[in-house]
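Problem 12. The chain below contains 213 residues. Write out its predicted structure in token notation.
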Amino acid sequence: MRTHCRLWMFLAAALLLPLSGLSAQEKTNAKESKAPARAAAEQPAAPKAATDDPAYEIGAEDQLNISVWNEPNITRTVPVRPDGKISLPLINDVQAAGLTPMQLATSITEKLKKFLSDPQVTVIVSGINSRRYYIVGEMNRAGAFPLLPNMTVLQALSSAGGFTQFAKLKSIYVLRIVDGKSIKYPFNYKDVIKGIHVEQNIILKPGDTIVVP
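Solution.
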């Protein structure tokens, strides 16, 4: 009787052993499959571009992400100084204002070739601070505002919280500096919203000032 019991216990242990080994192996495989997912999640997020317009011209106070492949000591986020330049290791000052991100990347690449073999540079505009317009006068919220692409005078006025009761809506105008001279563009608010003189609803440029007398 004891011999039969021992035989059954031996057979049961022999049958359970592969199952327990298989369970452990499955757990190992599951952990390994999760490892790449964790590694991907731990990777730093790529910087988001503030503009996808390839023709965008960089301006003073814009924020730029300069990425040099396999060169973490050079890769960094830098502001464009008021003089239009940025500073980077090895090459010091580089003119950025007035260039597109692609043009600036090419300029940096050429300068880095003196120190690195086949540098690969990417420039992303991560913050647009140079493109602003201004509203002064009889508005509930005058001041400086970010200039969005193709923004018109009417759209810009909608950002300033409405007119005061003293605003002269027929005498609004836009001041723009061209070649060092101030040019005045009239804007009759009451006409424009009625569909009259819609040509006065011009597209704003950086630095324009809307005056509401």
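Discussion. The radius of gyration is 32 Å. Students who got a different answer should revisit the alignment rule from Section 12.3.
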